[in-house]
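Case 466 in the screening queue. Each case pairs one protein sequence with one candidate compound; here the compound is phenylalanine. For every case the pipeline is the same: read the inputs, emit a complex structure as tokens, and attach any notable structural observations.

Predict complex for case 466.
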Amino acid sequence: MVYKAVFLDIRHKEMKERENFGSKMAVILAMAGSAVGLGNIWRFPYIAGENGGAAFIIVYALASFFLALPIFFAESIIGRRSRANTFGAMKTLAPGTHWKWLGLITVLTPLLILSYYSVVGGWSIEYLFKALAFDFTGAPPDKISGFFGSFISKAWEPIIMHTVFVGATTVIVLMGVKNGIERFSKITMPALFVLIVAIAVYGCTLPGAGKGVAYLLKPDFSKLSGSAVASAIGQAFFSLSLGVGTILVYASYMRKEENIFSAGAYTTIADFLFAIIAGFAIMPAVFAAGIEPGAGPGLVFETLPFIFNQMGASVPWLSATVAILFFLTILVAALTSSISLMEVGVSYLIENTKLGRKMATVLTGVFVWVLGIICSLSFGPMSGLLIGGENFFGALDKLCSNWLMPFGGLLFTIFVGWKMRKADVADEFTNGGTCNRGIFKVVYFLIRYVAPVGIIVVFITAILGL
Ligand code: PHE
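Case 466 output:
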């Protein structure tokens, strides 16, 4: 078990230096590493742009703290109580019931997500190469705006980059993340944060940026349809890695002494801040560059080169350095998320079939790779294939984020709120009554009533097309 290795290491350290801050931080960093990724930098700005900006962001904030966070707690309680993968958790806590199907759905969804996530991961690799070649600094602005469209509509190049990304994810999951990505991400995550703040500050100074700031701060509730609300909730789930068992699997490696409440709260706050700052890094520049905020999945990739190009006009070396560091850290952030997606499937295969880690990881990698190829081609040769008005990539993303993730989250809250004994839930959340006793009542209410009712209401409004 890759993550078992990480957390066993943490446990080992803690046995030596009891209750040390560093190891608590390691759990939070692992969860935050999964949460912070392309969802914040790539997905959040364009989904906010498609759904009207500020009003969407308010719903997204409410969804993050009142729907997603309780589900974070529910998944953590299930994971740490059962100490198993999603399927094993259901079999342990509710033996002989249909709950095992929830365990199975949450094995499949992360793999569907990973297939298109890897395509975007591939785009980031391409942009890293472009940054290394100083493409953003030297080229005339009109050429730069065409980069993205011409790249994704090609057949081979994006598939090659997708292959590299899936390959990297597979290798890391295969080898273990302890010495590589975890240590690396401890340095790069703060670096990414600093870079994105710097880009946000710079972006806000560009001529014409004021409209973008207003777009993020002045809500227009008339644009808020049922499907926009569903998208806001879907974004909260996607960004916090919820409803697909990732947090459940991570929590299964958490020590009994660790505080579920603070892990959830810190992860949610960090993830939320990252998304909002990414919004401020991108949206003012979107307006400054005259790009449509609803331009879709290419938004960040069309906007960033514009920012780097403008920067390059004044200080070329700085712009090139920022561009290289930026795409490198995005790539690392994407990898700390993609490995967590792959691990859910791999841990299931290892613990429930006869496959060893090697075979399980390779099989999962091949599945994701093949499906990802279709996603990649759906921007080029297969763009004619539309499902509900979306290309294959978009349709798969909508299915996962707006439906399967909230559905998984709904069932996790019902499981903890209605199926598990309250005493067990309280015991797990309060570490045997030693912490968080005051907040438990509120959290239990959110898990039992607010989160499930909220999700069901949104499902109904979205289905009825309100
Ligand atoms: N939360 C990750 C991101 O924002 C994506 C992810 C979704 C990871 C679901 C794991 C599970 O990039």
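Case 466 observations:
- The chain has a mean pLDDT of 87.
- The pocket of phenylalanine is lined by residues 34-35, 37-40, 110, 113, 238-239, 241, 244, 246, 337, 340-341 (CB under 6 Å).
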